Amino acid sequence: MKTQLLPYNKKNVAVAAEVIKNGGIVAFPTETVYGLGANAFDARAVDKIFAAKGRPGDNPLIVHVCKKSQIEEVACEISADARKIIDKFWPDSLTLVLKKRDSLPPNVTAGLDTVAVRMPASREARGFIRACGVPLAAPSANKSGRPSPTSALQVAEDMDGRLPVILSGRNCRVGIESTVLDLTGDAPVVLRPGIVSAASIEAQFARTSLQTLRALLRNGAQSRRRQGKDFCALQRSRAGGEKSRFAVRYGAGGKF
């Protein structure tokens, strides 16, 4: 497969969006890291993400939306707490885990009944998603186990020949993956620390455990790779009714 590296402009966004609409995958810029996107409702297209990355199929993907109202297309049972966080933070580098809609194929969520969703702060990312007309399932645009790319050239070096189009926009200003916040339980749980701090999230809730918050912040310097594994492992363990490894590692289940 020949990979095209296309500068981000109106014409090339339209070209890349057509690839998505026709069941393909595209690397695109966000403020965190470059994402490898596919139509979140197209199971075959999503399979191409896993094949291109060499990513295990039991790892859920984050779904990216371009506007707040689009969350209703992929998630349901959105609580008052979730809407409070959405109104306060989005668009930003904050991913929310919510109950999923049945319209999402199982390979997006690794068979779980939850979906991870975020609205990127990057205008380029939102503009591309808008052009595609659908939410995009998108992990980082790198081979599994490799560093997450923060530029189009890094994507090309790692993924050349594995996808049809890299949409070359600005370098990522954040450079690490988004914070992941689970809002499906009785209390919010940070599954993966990121640029949006636990303290800023905690401030949105009336009930707070300072000890738990300190534990989260103290452990926030752990490697992104380890955090990503914790995120996937915790989602799987919750689905299987097992005790969360994240709870042991971050204290009191990471509850605020």
Description of the structure:
The protein has helices at residues 10-21, 43-53, 80-89, 106-109, 123-132, 152-159, 198-202, 210-219, 224-239, 245-250; strands at 4-7, 26-28, 35-39, 62-64, 75-76, 94-100, 114-118, 136-137, 165-168, 179-182, 189-192. The chain starts with a strand and ends in a 6-residue tail after the last helix. With 256 residues, it is an alpha/beta fold. Strands 1, 2, 3, 4, 5, 6, 7, 8, 9, 10 and 11 form an eleven-stranded mixed sheet that branches. Helix 1 crosses helix 5 (123-132). The chain has ten helices and eleven strands. Strand 10 and strand 11 (189-192) form a beta hairpin. It is globular and about 50 Å long.
Short description:
With 256 residues, the protein is of the alpha/beta class. Helices cover 36% and strands 17% of the residues. Residues 207-213, 221-227 and 240-256 have low confidence and may be disordered.
Name a few traits of the molecule:
eleven-stranded mixed β-sheet; globular; 10 helices; disordered C terminus; single chain
Taking the alpha carbons of the first and last residues, their distance comes to: 48 Å
Fraction in helix: 25-40%
How many DSSP helices?
10
Q: Mean pLDDT across all residues, rounded? A: 85
Low-confidence stretches: 207-213, 221-227, 240-256
DSSP strand count = 11
